[in-house]
TrEMBL record:
It comes from Massilia polaris. Its EC number is 2.1.1.72. Belongs to the N(4)/N(6)-methyltransferase family. This is site-specific DNA-methyltransferase (adenine-specific). GO terms for molecular function: DNA binding; N-methyltransferase activity; site-specific DNA-methyltransferase (adenine-specific) activity. The keyword Transferase applies. Coiled coil: none annotated. It holds the Pfam family N6_Mtase.
Amino acid sequence: MAKTSKKEARAGVTEILALLRHAFPPAPSVHFLIALVTLRWLADARRDSLPLPCHLELPGCLEYHVPLTLHEDQLGHWFEAMFKQLEDANPTELNGLFSGLDFTSPRFKSDDDGRSLLMRAVEILWFKDRYQCSFDLMKEALAIARSCLVTGFSAPEFNTPASLCELAARLAQPQAGESVYDPACGTGQMLIHCEGTLKCSPKQVRLFGAEPHATAWTLAKVSALYHGFSSEHIGMSDSLQPENVLESDDGQRKFDVVIAHPPWGAKEWRAENPPPERHERFRRGMPPKNNGDYAYLLHMVASMKDDSGRMVAIVSSGVLSRGAQEGRIRMRLVKDDLVDAVIALPEKMFHGTPVGGAMLVMRRKRSTRNVLFIDARGFATGAGGKNTFSAQAIDWIAHACAARKSEPGVSALAAIDEIVEHGYSLSVSLYIRAEQENSSADIHAIRCRRKKLHDELGGINQQIDDLLDAVMSGDEKRARLTEPLR
């Protein structure tokens, strides 16, 4: 049988999601979709002895053909039994992932043509082996599910653009044997993209993550498994709460690489007067209760290893310049020589919002006290109404960060004294403005030169016209002199 095309796979997944959305809210409909496609993927792998990118034990009762033989009254119970068996066989990878779904819910009841919603979904996924390549089906399901969550919850962090994930991974440069942690991992996009920078097997890098939203957490776990990573250490929790801080024998657990696209401006992330916590994540200052931006940043800083630790955070532009308590925290981060680079991002890069943002790079061990500022707003490439970074743009930014050189109008190295003069603001425009002004002066000079040349060209054209008129007049005179007399 010919391999299913990407277009056919996307159409099938979209059809199932549309059916589910008629019966369920956005989050449960996405959860059911991923459950159905995952079970189809695993049943397909067991039937044809296909190698999985991850290690999972598949129970013998997971027979591919079974759902095609069951009555609709039996179908929901079979799905629940299969998911329980899978979770029991793989507790570290799958525990709690799908067992809470109610496949016998009345919402799956028969429609006008007598078929239940679940029966129709099985027909689309299983009937006549319509989708032979389950890997393509899984890929499309994960992509569509992420987009649905962003739309349903106005949460851009659930689907970080691929070009930003790749850039963050290039800047962090995870190496074989290292640990990578995302304290607000959403659907797992930033964690998974670390694979692209590796020159080794994905399993040589250990992934850790936290995500409080159940459906986003499910997507993160399944995405990790689909790409060959273990999902054992991707937990469903709010990393900002002290009871959820990952621990080791000597206190808070530390990681080589910390990356995140946390939710911007998280409200009510802490109590009005929180008790002291033993991990001292907020020793540089307590972030405001109604904006968790710096809470995530300080948590990420505290999660870096003392020797090899580095972090990349996608933040709102306000993080770079807001004052009051956040300004004092930013001052301490600069004074502690943690801030390595600041990259201004273009507008319209994120799903669900037109605003731009910034990428903040920090390191424990730095060879210089200068901070590199890059204005990447001019590197955007339009695609489908959104902006993205091309592979060439990502290469340029990554190489600029590694070389740490100033490029007029695009990048600048700022000494700590200069940052102090600007009140510890990290707004990129403050440090690249001089180059921009020089560029404006150059443009003005070019325009003046262009006008002068245009005027000179006008004079030359007039001289040519005069000469042509003279030639034409001479020709007419000679023509009259040679005209025969009558």
